[in-house]
Design brief:
Order of helices and strands: HEEHHEEHEEHEHHHHEEEHEHEHEHEHEE
CATH architecture of the largest domain: 2-Layer Sandwich
Low-confidence stretches: none
Number of strands: 16
CATH topology of the largest domain: BirA Bifunctional Protein, domain 2
Distance between the termini: 46 Å
Strand order of the largest sheet: 1-5-6-11-10-9-7-8
Radius of gyration: 28 Å
Bound molecules: histidyl-adenosine monophosphate
Number of helices: 14
CATH class of the largest domain: Alpha Beta
Structural class: alpha+beta
Mean pLDDT: 97
Helix content: 25-40%
Shape: elongated
Length: 404
């Protein structure tokens, strides 16, 4: 027997219903905010992710599904959605138009991580990317939109916020941090020692407890922001206060992708265990330019669909449509034709085998239909059908024409 690959899952029944409910709810909200659908390829040139997500990030160094295709091209299964959307934005020359663009997407992402609860190798994201808007109002609006999606799905969350500064305040801060880290080098873990040279900011979110305890007195970027970043961050927190959205400022929130500047955020849930991030995002004003487009400010987020699957409060299953069946073999095709006609308007489940009354009623119950419709010997002779409303329990025999 061939099983699915480690860290990959089939979705069916209740789970696939939940999945689609999450996606449709998120789409409904995104459309209200003016987002349009974008679909980009799952495979992209490896260089795209190296340049955007970052050469030294864990995703690129350890987690990519990277291979050479039959034509000798170095390609990757996308580990996230932003890079592809930015590439598509530039490929379509949208960076040369003065129009603001807003895209939403959903689909599979691939990271070769060690699978555990809430951490898959193939997982799905719903994401949004907004291009051309430099105002912090847009950061605020995106956060409100995620909060609205979670509210409509019945999911509680904690919002964590940080600012990663810009090209004016980040470099001097980085230098400061490197000096601090170099002094405590001996006591930091191996990974952190490597990161001091490659990506010192990532040391801040090291999961090692010893490292974390050594970082309590580390310089904080939030205290060293330039005037513009500081003003934006203060504006964002004021707007969130006014909107009644609670948040925690987390100075160690650096995100695992290198393209962010200014606002960075994560939504976490306390109900799903160690892998608690249910959405993440932020501003990435330099990425379009970095991928050879014209400078375009941008901000976005992605929700991890599998992470919120068990948190979603689904609306009650409403009985709908018809269950149709025949009680004599001669009536089977009559039922079949009736079902096909009725399907222009309603959901219909048909049983192709003629069966007894009790057996049909069991089938009707399982199909979650609102009405059971049966044709037996008498109904066939009289051109009628027997109909039962499974909610009100009312039963009737009516002319077949009334059904269509
Ligand atoms: P990210 O934080 O890497 O951000 O991923 C977003 C969400 O995807 C996470 O919060 C988590 O819920 C889910 N996720 C990540 N890895 C896994 C995994 N291995 N298994 C299950 N779920 C996972 C991004 O990907 C950015 N592209 C978000 C963004 C969009 N930033 C700006 N625009």
């Amino acid at each position: 027997m061939i099983n699915p690959l480690r860290g990959m899952k089939d979705l069916m029944f209740e789970d696939s219903q939940r999945f689609m409910y999450i996606v449709t709810t998120a789409i409904k909200v995104a459309k209200r905010y003016g987002y349009g659908y974008i679909e980009t390829p799952i495979l992209e040139e490896t260089a795209l992710f190296k340049r955007s997500v970052g050469d030294s990030s864990d995703i690129v160094t350890k987690e990519m599904y990277q291979f050479e295709d039959k034509g000798g091209n170095d390609i990757c299964m996308r580990p996230e959605g932003t890079a592809g959307v930015v590439r598509a934005f530039i490929s379509a020359k949208l960076d040369r138009q003065p129009i603001k663009q807003k895209f939403y997407y959903y689909g599979p992402m691939f990271r070769y991580e060690r699978p555990q609860k809430g951490r898959l190798r193939e997982f799905h994201q719903f994401g949004c990317e907004s291009f051309g808007e430099a105002s912090v109002y847009e950061d605020f609006t995106l956060i409100m939109m995620i909060a609205q999606i979670f509210r409509e799905l019945g999911i509680g969350f904690t919002l964590k916020l940080n600012s990663l500064g810009c090209s004016a305040c980040m470099p001097p801060y980085r230098e400061n941090l490197v000096n601090f880290l170099t002094d405590i080098k001996e006591e930091l873990c191996e990974d952190c020692n490597r990161r001091i040279g490659t990506n010192p900011i990532r040391v801040l979110d090291c999961k090692n407890e010893t490292c974390q305890s050594l970082l309590t007195d580390s310089p904080k970027l939030i205290d060293n922001l330039c005037d513009s970043c500081d003003a934006d961050f203060k504006k964002l927190t004021t707007l969130l206060d006014d909107a009644g959205i609670a948040y925690e400022i987390d100075t160690n929130l650096v995100r695992g992708l290198d393209y962010y500047n200014k606002t960075a955020f994560e939504f976490v849930s306390s109900e799903i265990g160690a892998q608690s991030a249910i959405a993440g995002g932020g501003r990435y004003d330099k990425l379009v330019e970095y991928l050879d487009g014209k400078p375009t400010p941008a901000v976005g987020f992605a929700i991890g669909i599998e992470r919120i699957m068990e948190l979603v409060k689904m609306p009650e299953n409403i009985k709908e449509g018809y269950y149709m069946g025949a009680m004599v073999p001669e009536a089977v095709e009559k039922v079949l034709m009736l079902a096909n006609a009725k399907r222009k308007y309603k959901k219909v489940t048909v049983e192709y085998t003629s069966k007894g009354f009790k057996s049909h009623m069991k089938g009707a119950d399982k199909s979650n239909a609102r009405f059971a419709l049966l044709i037996g010997e008498d109904e066939l002779a009289n051109g009628t059908v027997w109909l039962k409303d499974l909610e009100t329990k009312e039963e009737r025999t009516i002319p077949i024409e009334e059904i269509v």
